Structure formats: structure tokens, C-alpha cells
User: Which sequence fits this backbone?
């Protein structure tokens, strides 16, 4: 069974940094691209970033480009999101999602339960 | 950025009836299109990709159609578990974008 477990969220002041993690199990992690998708409270879904199986292809939403960095450690079956210069508008539930193949194809086939990031002073 | 626009925002339908949800893309995306279902307090669920291919395990009452800029999700006979928010999404171009959602509620 595919399992994705996010962690690292919390209350953080504007301008500070936070690192999210996603631990994967139940599948061969390095056979799949991975993504971060977020959902502000009571709002819709926003794709944040995606990374291919070998980190060779990475993409970001314009809203986070230059501030967020996605990475993965295939030896640890883990996906990360380093978030710098956080803003109030980054407040959201952050989901880790698995794609359907090695490339960043934009299919969010499996989702974790999310980790909540609240940016507030 | 490709803008995805869903209609209606809320759809009220009785159990057993058919529901039709629409999504429009601001430019042609071929069939690089997906639907997701989200229930309160849960993560989204992948329903359909390639505009019309059901994900394994998704009931046959869910069907998708369309190409280019106009897409439709049809639920042929609504079950109680189908009442949820549905999102469309394009994966033709980065950044991947979602519609704002259609809330399917019990009439």
C-alpha cells in the first residue's frame, strides 16, 4: 500500500524558513517523480513543485520560485521542501503527491494527508 | 499560465440522478487533463486522466470527456459517497494548474 507521510509543518513567522519532509513507503520510491501541492484554508489546490526520479528535472510555481527548493533522497525514500522567506500567503496544508512515472508529468496519483504551515507573526 | 475555470461552483443533485460538471481551459491542452475528488478533511483522490481514462478502482459511473479547451465529468447515478468537491487540472504545461472546484451537494 502506498503511504506518504508529511511532517515539518507548524507556526512560523514571516521571513523565516521551514523544511517539510515526506516519507514514502509501499512503492519503489526512485521509480517515480514526486510533487508538493498546497491548499490554503478553505481554498482550492495549488501545485507548488515537482521533481523527477533522479532530480534531473525540477519545476516550480511562479509564486514560490526563488524561495522554495524541492529535493529528494532516494536512499531514504524521502521528499523535501525547503521554504525560505515565508509569507502569510504561503499558509496552507502542504501535500506530498506521487506521480505515475519517473518523469514530472503532473499526475497526482497518490497523496499524503498533508502538513499544515501557518505563517503569522 | 493556463487558467482552468470550472462550472458551476455548486451543483445540487438528488441521489440516483446524473451530475455533469464542466471545466474550461484558457488555451488548448489537448487531452492532458485530470479530475480529482476531495471530501471534507481528506486528501484529493485521483479519478480520471487523459481526459477520459478512469484510474484503477474508480467506479464506472464516473466518466470524463472532452479535448482542447472543454471538458466534462459525468457521474451517471449519484451515490451518497459521491457528494464532494471536484477539481479539474491541466498537465499540458508548467505550472500545472487546477480549477477552483465544483461542490457537488445533495439536493
Assistant:
Amino acid at each position: 500500500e502506498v503511504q506518504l507521510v508529511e511532517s515539518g509543518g507548524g507556526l512560523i513567522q514571516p521571513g523565516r524558513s521551514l523544511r517539510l519532509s515526506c516519507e514514502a513507503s509501499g512503492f519503489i520510491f526512485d521509480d517515480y517523480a514526486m510533487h508538493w501541492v498546497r491548499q490554503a484554508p478553505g481554498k482550492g489546490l495549488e501545485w507548488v513543485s515537482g521533481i523527477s526520479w533522479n532530480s534531473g528535472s525540477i519545476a516550480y510555481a511562479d509564486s514560490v520560485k526563488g524561495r522554495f527548493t524541492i529535493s529528494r533522497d532516494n536512499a531514504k525514500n524521502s521528499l523535501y521542501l525547503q521554504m525560505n522567506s515565508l509569507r502569510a500567503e504561503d499558509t496552507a496544508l502542504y501535500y506530498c503527491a506521487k506521480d505515475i512515472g519517473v518523469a514530472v508529468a503532473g499526475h497526482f496519483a497518490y497523496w499524503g494527508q498533508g502538513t499544515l504551515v501557518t505563517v503569522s507573526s | 499560465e493556463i487558467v482552468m475555470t470550472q462550472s458551476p461552483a455548486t451543483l445540487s443533485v438528488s441521489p440516483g440522478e446524473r451530475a455533469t460538471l464542466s471545466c474550461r481551459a484558457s488555451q488548448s491542452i489537448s487531452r492532458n487533463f485530470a479530475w480529482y475528488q476531495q471530501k471534507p478533511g481528506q486528501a484529493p483522490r485521483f479519478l480520471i486522466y487523459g481526459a477520459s481514462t478512469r484510474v484503477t478502482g474508480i467506479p464506472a459511473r464516473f466518466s470524463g470527456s472532452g479535448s482542447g479547451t472543454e471538458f466534462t465529468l459525468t457521474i451517471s447515478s449519484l451515490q451518497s459517497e459521491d457528494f464532494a468537491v471536484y477539481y479539474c487540472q491541466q498537465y499540458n504545461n508548467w505550472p500545472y494548474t487546477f480549477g477552483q472546484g465544483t461542490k457537488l451537494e445533495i439536493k
About this structure: Chain B touches chain A at residues 1, 32, 34, 36, 38, 43-46, 49, 55, 87, 89-91, 94-101 (CB under 8 Å). Chain B has a mean pLDDT of 97. The longest strand of chain B covers residues 19-25.
